[in-house]
Description:
The protein is of the alpha+beta class. 13% of the residues lie in helices and 21% in strands. The protein has one domain (6-62). A hairpin with a 6-residue loop joins strand 1 (6-10) and strand 2. It is globular. 25% of the residues are buried. Zinc ion binds next to loops.
Amino acid sequence: MKPKLTSEISCPVCGHKETETMPEDACQYYYECKKCRGLLKPKQGDCCVFCSYGDTPCPPVQLDQSCG
Ligand SMILES: [Zn+2]
């Protein structure tokens, strides 16, 4: 199974949505909102910003792998 590599990330500060491409085998911990320039970090218990704020979780999670 191939993971989906794009995720629409929603900024919790300003509500801006942006479709981003995710790295296939890594997690992105920080994300800067392109509109308000706010720096997003994962919520507690999530491994990356896509799992917290994206509409699609990161590829390792989709494949049921951990991504420490
Ligand atoms: Zn924002």
